[in-house]
Design a protein that fits this description.
Elements lengths: L3 E7 L3 H12 L7 E7 L15 E6 L7 H11 L4 E5 L3 E3 L3 H11 L4 E9 L1 H4 L8 H4 E3 L18 E5 H7 L12 H11 L4 E10 L12 H15 L5 H9 L3 E3 L4 E3 L5 H6 L4
Parallel strand pairs: 1-2, 1-4, 2-3, 6-9
Antiparallel strand pairs: 4-8, 5-9, 6-7, 6-8, 10-11
Length: 276
């Protein structure tokens, strides 16, 4: 069975990372290693549980506040094994997740694999027995749960896996996408363009609650910048729901082939967009 390097990125999510590691300890098949990339913060390992697998804490310094594309590429470059699974630090893996990926890699490792994600409410995330009741405490994704196999448009980096050969055949994540937004979709579109099949597995990760915004006004500038970059490459607009919401609120002007920022949201306006 293939050895798997598990990769994750973190910035200011110490409690989530602790639960992430606890979840990996419950895995039916342990990872060969866990690589944690700390984005613009010092690595820390205090108070973390003892594990049967090695953990490597590394730091990535960047002028970007949230260098997601760079950090994912860095994580893959550090992996010591040929098969990698990248899971968002806000997730807790199911005990069967790594086994499902390992089985898939053993059968076919020339494709891009996507896993599934369910969501934990704030109350359930904080329950002491959450690791024992991940399925019953969580809710299905409202859009992706309709699909047995995700189309390339719905690929996400919360939970995916591939061989290092496939990752570099895609070209990694395009680092011209800076900060938050569209870099996942660009990655999957490039995979499709290069003839790499996308297969969805039932390997499930459970997303821990954290404050989020609808629309994500806290990421408006990077979303707009990345939307422009995506349009230049693919002649399609990504994140249309968010862009429509920004336009309705007067923050942007958006036409068939152009987009511009008219004003930035205030701190109060961002807080008002916080999901309850």
């Amino acid at each position: 069975m293939p050895s798997i390097s598990v990769l994750t990125l973190v910035k200011g999510r110490k409690n989530a990372l602790l639960q992430f590691i606890r979840g990996l300890r419950n895995s039916e098949i342990p990872p060969a290693e866990l690589v944690i990339v700390h984005m613009n913060e010092s690595a820390y390992a205090e108070d973390f549980p003892v594990t049967s697998f090695p953990i490597r804490y590394v730091e990535l310094r960047s002028e970007e506040t949230l260098p997601l594309a760079k950090a994912r590429n860095y994580a893959f470059s550090l992996a010591q094994h040929d098969h990698c699974v990248l899971v968002d630090v806000d997730c807790i893996v199911s005990p069967s997740l790594l086994g499902m990926y390992a089985d898939a890699f053993e059968k076919k490792d020339t494709v891009l694999y996507a896993g599934k994600v369910r969501y934990l409410t704030q109350a359930n995330t904080e329950k002491p027995d959450v690791l024992e009741h991940l399925e019953s405490y969580s809710q299905a994704d409202p859009i992706r749960s309709r699909f047995d196999q995700f189309p390339y448009e719905l690929f996400w980096s919360l939970n995916f896996g591939c061989s290092r050969k496939v990752f570099y055949a895609i070209g990694g994540f395009d680092e011209s996408f800076t900060g938050y937004g569209a870099e996942d979709t660009d990655f999957s579109f490039t995979a499709r363009h290069r003839g790499i099949e996308l297969i969805t597995l039932p390997a499930t990760a459970y997303h821990q609650y954290h404050p989020s915004y609808s629309p994500p006004l806290n990421h408006l500038e990077s979303i707009v910048s990345n939307a422009r970059q995506f349009y230049q490459k693919w002649k399609l607009w990504p994140m249309e729901g968010w862009l429509t919401a920004f336009q309705k609120r007067g923050y942007i002007t958006w036409s068939e082939d152009q987009i511009s920022v008219e004003k930035l949201p205030s701190i109060t306006e961002i807080q008002e967009a916080l999901k309850s």
